[in-house]
Amino acid sequence: MAKFNKNKYLKPFKNWYILILVIFGAWMIFFDTNSWFIHNELNNDINDLEAEKKYYEREIEKDKKAIKKLSTEEGLEKFAREEYYMKRDNEEIFIIEYEDSLKVKQND
Questions:
Q1: Which residues form a coiled coil (predicted)?
Q2: Hey, which of 16, 55, 64, 94 has its CA 20 to 30 A from 45?
Q3: 1-14: per-residue pLDDT in tens?
Q4: DSSP states of 44-102
């Protein structure tokens, strides 16, 4: 008991209020269900979800523009010609592929 009285670092812990405050603080930071660590993790999750929300909002805007283009006759025809190589009855289509755009199969 004599060592406890002489140590200058442990002297504040003789006061019950400070001792209870330190225990309460440690409990709230580390052990409680609403601890600082859990709040930090949840805040990081919120930030990630907000970034994901912004990404999907940009994608929705791009899709709305694409739908608006496809709603016109010219846009629909252009899409069908470029993506599905469709043609009119009186036309011929020639597809030119360059060497750098071809997929090369590797022999096993």
A1: 39-73
A2: 64
A3: 455 556 777 777 77
A4: HHHHHHHHHHHHHHHHHHHHHHHHHHHTSHHHHHHHHHHHH----TT--------GGGS
Contacts with 79 (C-beta within 8 Å, 6 or more apart), sequence order: 69, 70
In contact, 70 and 79? CB cutoff 8 Å: yes
Block residue for tokens 């523009």: 65
SS3 sequence of 12-34: HHHCHHHHHHHHHHHHHHHHCCC
**Per-residue pLDDT reduced to its tens digit, 26-51:** 888 878 777 888 889 999 999 999 99
d(CA 44, CA 74): 46
Q: Is the pTM for the entire model greater than 0.70?
A: no
